[in-house]
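lol ok so funny story. i was supposed to be doing the assay writeup but got distracted and ended up predicting the structure for this chain instead. priorities right. anyway since i did it might as well share w the group, maybe its usefull for someone
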Amino acid sequence: MTGQLRQLTPRPTSTGQTRQSLAGGAVGAALLDIERAATGHGTWQTAHQALAVASSGGITSTQQTHLYYGAPAFAFAITGAHQHHPGSYRDALAMLDEMVSTIVQARLAAAHARIDARQLPALSEFDTIRGLAGLGAHLLRRDHRQPLLRDVLAYLVRLTQPIHDDGDELPGWWTHLDPGGNPSPDYPGGHANTGMAHGIGGPLALLALAANRGFTVPGHHEAIARIRDWLDRWQQTTDTGPCWNRTETTSTWWPYWITRTELRTGRLQQRGPQRPSWCYGTPGLGRAQQLAAIATRDAAWKHAAETALVDALTDSHQVALLTDNSLCHGLAGAAYIARLAAADSTSPQLARVADQLAAAADRRRTPRPDTTAPLDTPQGFLEGTAGTALALRAHLLQAAPRTSWDSSLLINASI
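and the output, tada:
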């Protein structure tokens, strides 16, 4: 990369981990070391060594990279260190900024060419993990005034415009692929994905966060309204039976995705709410809707989103589906989303839910979130101990993260 990183002696990393992966590799694990250094609970030398491990095999900067892999992932991680360790990584970050700019411009050109050809998108074109919503999250964190972010937002506005295919009017984010991003006979006609990780939840959240910073493009609020109308169309209410810590027995939820058959019949084949997590389910999508309601000053939508969050995270049947502690789809992630949502809500319920979920996650966890495990443990960001520790230490310290690592999830209102 640069001498700033090469000069350090790398620590051993886990066998089989992809160093360049923000999700499960060394660069994602480095986020914990950077946050600990920024809060005075660790050293910058340790953070520096973690970044050296991540960069030791080189950095990929092809058009296939994204927020969670390659140059954009490094740019995201190093931004946190640069902001809180004056003078560090200036040259490295300048180089990475150029790489990211080239990547985003190429991906935008490909996306507009696809729309011009009236073709359906792949999820990886626009989603949080692999697409332009995630890249936009990094740009918003770096400098919300930059023209390249405006170009990403303009693309997202265009993405939400309806498209016609095989006699059906589809939302512009309808993909011809299955939820895994592959052609599949199990999904004839494709699907519309609502998830935060791989669906329209990410673009909705980015549009909302940018608007909350006063940064909008023509058609910005209309795009938010189109997504809201789609979600309203497919909102479900289910009788859940006796639930944890509440008297209501219904839950509002959204399906993970809509198939072409469901679109044409207007009837869901899914029977009830699924796992309540960030990547898919009510917590991530509910938080995105809360942020969008704040951006559009829609009090009724905001109340509905917050009610859905409380419903999902106090429903013992749904919470029982959180079988691990991960940030992506576990207790720590659900607790963290509830904590962020509580900060933007006048209701005390979300704060209580956050406390209860964090306590449940902490009882499961070893070691505690204020310690650093060696890198030969499963220390990924999305599904491993690094992400769990980052989420739980925010609860433990009762403070927002210094390095805004959560902006990679598009749930941080102060991004």
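The first strand starts at residue 163 and ends at 165. Residues 27 and 285 are 26 Å apart (CA to CA).
back to the writeup now i swear
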